[in-house]
Write a structure and sequence with these properties.
The chain is of the alpha+beta class. It has 14 helices and 10 strands.
Length: about 500
């Protein structure tokens, strides 16, 4: 868990003047640009609509879990996301209160996110009255909150909904530290400043993830409501994302530590971690959404007329973008060759060391080019790795790999694969890395110790500049290889 840090309140500030350099995330921007090209295609598919509905349900559940509004088991959470929000699907062992009470709060959250979609479709401007309306909807079934009275005792009080706080709501910690939010008498002015800067950011065309991070953090610093401010902050960030045709900001319980840490960094005037955190969640959601294309294609096999229309549309797109997409494949070729060269020098150094132990030990790199017979190797490991990251690895559109092999008593491999993401020729490429060992048992090769390397795959799109992709990739690869070698060391 992140450490608690005392903080004294001060009025909110605007973005730094160099935001376009210090905060913008080109990786997220490039992926979203390509995503926008495919959104209309996906919107017509039933699987995409179901995916968005599941995202809304996940958002509705997790936004309360991370605030401690209720406890809900992982199993019950998955069931509600897949089947719908229904108290009958929750047992008393799944939660800390009556299932009907938990579901009532979740449905309040769900009403709020449905309202965000309606707000965006109506092309309305964000106002203070709408923010109060959001709070009232979110907290409809939370009637009380816990606070200290003037004597320092914990007491339960009625929760005012849809109105600014009238009492301080600073956070105290067991170590004596205190996190101070905006005093009640300054809330109105601070909220007016918040919206004034937010509307200016829209005019200045500040990137969506930067807007969302700034609005979320500055609202949280003001903390204008008695309780429920975190949930409103995530609503406001989601509203910014939806206005730009992005996906909702779904922060889950497993993301909580990184989320809180990025907010605390923003308290110290470093907004970049929160921008990157929001971008990372968005990239993950986009990868999952794009991968639906493959599922939709499979489901459409029986409908020949629909399938023909889809193929025709993809064909038209391929013709229009052929040159750029070919360029992206050229970039992918260069990345896999770079991987081979970079790992080759490391393999040579390791080879010298392990041969001192046994001349039969060996370290080297192997390589499979796109379109070659060797390029089709490692199918199962690559598909399993992509499934771990929850996206579809399209090995038909592109498939190359480089393997860092260390053969001692066991054969260990650090495999780097570059492949397409999603069904069809999406123009988005993923690079996933994984570690595993191989042992020969009689006439069969046994794969074990399989582990994806890194928190997320590296990705790039056909709209990106090759030099910029190379810079990002080299940093990613250095980190991945270190993780793989640490894993190899533990297996010796």
């Amino acid at each position: 868990m992140p450490d608690f840090i005392s903080l004294k309140w001060s009025p909110i500030t605007d973005l730094p003047s160099d935001w376009s350099v210090s905060l913008a995330n080109k990786q997220t921007t490039a992926l979203v640009e390509t995503w926008h090209e495919q959104q209309e295609e996906l919107r017509s598919q039933g699987s995409y609509k179901f995916f968005v509905e599941k995202l809304k349900r996940q958002w509705s559940i997790e936004t309360g879990v991370i605030e401690g509004a209720y406890v809900l088991s992982d199993g019950a959470t998955r069931t509600l996301i897949e089947k719908g929000i229904d108290a009958a699907l929750i047992t008393h062992a799944d939660t800390d209160e009556e299932p009907h009470s938990v579901v009532a709060k979740i449905l309040d959250h769900h009403s709020a996110i449905e309202g965000l979609y309606a707000f965006v479709s109506g092309n309305r401007e964000l106002t203070l009255s709408y923010i109060k309306e959001l709070h009232e909807v979110l907290m409809n079934n939370q009637r009380t909150y816990v606070a200290r009275d003037s004597l320092g005792n914990w007491v339960t009080r009625d929760l005012p909904r849809g109105t600014w706080k009238t009492l301080k709501n600073d956070v105290e910690h067991v170590d004596g530290g205190k996190f101070e939010f905006c005093p009640p008498e300054h809330v109105q002015q601070e909220m007016e400043n918040l919206l004034s800067w937010h509307h200016q950011h829209i005019q200045d065309e500040v990137p969506t993830d930067v807007q969302a991070a700034w609005l979320h953090h500055r609202f949280a610093i003001i903390h204008p409501f008695t309780d429920g401010n975190g949930r409103v902050a995530r609503c406001l960030a989601t509203l910014v994302l939806l206005k730009s045709h992005w996906l909702p900001l779904v922060v889950t319980r497993t993301d909580r530590d990184e989320y809180i840490q990025s907010l605390r960094r923003a308290d110290r005037l470093d907004l970049k971690p929160l921008v990157d955190f929001i971008g990372g969640l968005q990239r993950k959601a986009i990868r999952e959404a794009i991968s639906l294309g493959e599922q939709a294609t499979q489901e459409a096999q029986a409908f020949n007329s629909i399938l023909s229309a889809v193929k025709a549309k993809f064909s038209q797109r391929r013709v229009a973008d052929q040159a750029l997409r070919q360029q992206a494949k050229t970039i992918a070729d260069s990345l896999i060759l770079y991987t081979n060269d970079s790992n080759g020098s490391k393999a040579s150094a390791i080879d010298n060391v392990i041969k001192e132990e046994n001349l039969r030990y060996d370290a080297y790199v192997a390589y499979g080019a796109n379109g070659s017979e060797k390029g089709t190797y490692y199918y199962k490991q690559i598909v399993d790795c992509a499934r771990h990251y929850q996206y579809f690895a399209n090995l038909n559109v592109y498939h190359s790999w480089s393997s860092f092999v260390i053969a001692t008593k066991r054969r260990s491999e650090i495999l780097v694969s570059i492949h397409g993401i999603g069904g069809g020729d999406s123009g988005i490429f993923g690079c996933a890395a994984m570690f595993f060992t191989k042992d020969r048992q009689e006439d069969e090769i046994q794969i074990s110790d399989f582990q994806p390397l890194g928190d997320e795959p590296f990705e790039f799109s056909y709209t990106e500049n090759g030099t910029e992709v190379q810079k990002r990739f080299s940093r990613w690869l250095d980190n991945i290889v270190i993780l793989g070698l640490q894993k190899w060391k533990s297996t010796i």
